[in-house]
Amino acid sequence: MACSSGGDQGAESKCSIKRDPSGYFNNPFPEFRFLSPFELFKLARAKNNKNLPSTEEEIDQTLPYKKNFDDVDSKSQNTVTWIGHSSCLLKMSGIYILTDPVFSQKRKRFRQPGLSLEEIDKVDAVVISHDHYDHLDYNSVIDINKRFPSSQWFVPLGLKSWFESSGIRSESIHEMNWWEEKSHTFQEGELTFTCLPAQHWSMRIAPGIDMNYSLWCGWRVMSSEKNVYFAGDTGYNNRIFRQIGNHCGPFDLSLIPIGAYEPREYLKCQHVNPEEAVKVHDEVNSKLSLGIHWGTLRQGKEHYLAPPRDLKYALEVANINEAKFVTFQHGECREI
Ligand code: ZN
Ligand code: ZN
User: Fold this and answer.
1) Cα(218) to centroid(ligand 1), Å
2) Could you tell me the residue ranges of all domains in the chain?
3) How many whole angstroms separate alpha carbon 237 and alpha carbon 272?
4) What is the pLDDT averaged over residues 10-38?
5) How many A from CA of 50 to the centre of ligand 1?
6) Do 244 and 256 touch, CB atoms closer than 8 A?
7) How far is the C-alpha of 328 from the C-alpha of 322, rounded, in Å?
8) How many C-alpha atoms does 323 have within 13 Å on its Cβ side?
9) What pTM did the predictor assign?
10) Nearest ligand, CA of residue 131?
């Protein structure tokens, strides 16, 4: 069933996605559309308000690191650390999970990872939201696999062969469709992973070659103690997040993108802005949310410090306590 717009009916059901015999995934959301070549041209030419300081020292002042991982991690079995962009390290009942790990991408990056792979002692699982380069980084996959060969990889449909050809053992790759659920037993206990819908797209090479040939998604990770939602990359529509909230919420923690949203007319269908991120937080029924997908890579044309600023404003307008939806400094770790 496609996710039609309007009506409460959609909120009760679970939206699904159809795949052509050729392997192409058809986006079920009418809110999503691909930009025309002319729009892509206009997007490339649109004014860039990023205003990045020219020196590392200046960025150090406005986006300082907070290196408290060792301190917090040693005291709690449930933590979250923001590495940068959409890369987070979750610790749930002592089990370590990485979300969309990107430790390289030096060219596009203006803030280095707040926690390096060498500083991480254990990775039990990795969840991948989609194949865009800012979420799926070949070098990071290779390095994680080398350092933590027994880690389990949870990926959306169509990506298994990519991981196999990157050297990951077949039996460690869990390729899943929206709403599919899988439990895995680790040394410390069991986690359940649920692949969740998102309004986005996929491509690594070019349209016509691999565009939409693998799926895009969010993830729910659930332990016996905590329930966490990772939204991946997504645009907003008024159905999916209610469905996620109804079927998988409430969440103790949600990782929700808040950056790369300008110019709005071109990016609205694939990236939420802070105002929509607040709606996501509310609709999935999140007790605490962390704003991700900002402050790290040269992406989107909003000012590089706008996402947390706009998030504060959006929370105020929605009359939600700003302690409920926070942003971290790079490297910052907190108990959940
Ligand atoms: Zn993306
Ligand atoms: Zn992205």
Assistant:
1) 11
2) 61-335
3) 9
4) 89
5) 19
6) no
7) 13
8) 1
9) 0.96
10) 1
Distance from Cα 189 to the centre of ligand 2, integer Å: 31
184 φ/ψ angles, rounded to the nearest 5 degrees: -135, 135
- The CA 239 to ligand 1 mean position distance, Å, reads 20
Fold observed for domain 61-335: Metallo-beta-lactamase; Chain A (3.60.15)
User: CA angle, corner 29, sides to 38 and 192, nearest 5?
Assistant: 125
222-273 confidence digits (pLDDT tens): 999 999 999 999 999 999 999 999 999 999 999 999 999 999 999 999 999 9
Q: Which two tokens stand for residue 148?
A: 């933590």
Could you tell me the distance, in angstroms and rounded to a whole number, from the CA of residue 270 to the centre of ligand 1?
A: 8
Share of the chain above pLDDT 70, in %: 96
Instruction: Give burial (CB, 10 Å; 0-12/13-18/19+) of 44.
Output: exposed
132 CA from centroid of ligand 2 (Å) = 7
CA 202 vs CA 34, 69, 89, 210, 213: distances in Å: 11, 32, 23, 8, 7
Q: How far is the CA of 75 from the centre of ligand 1 (A)?
A: 34
Ligand nearest to the CA of 300: 2
Instruction: Give residues with Cβ within 8 angstroms of 184, minimum separation 6.
Output: 125, 152, 174, 190, 191, 193
> How far is ligand 1, taken at its centre, from the CA of residue 279, in Å?
20
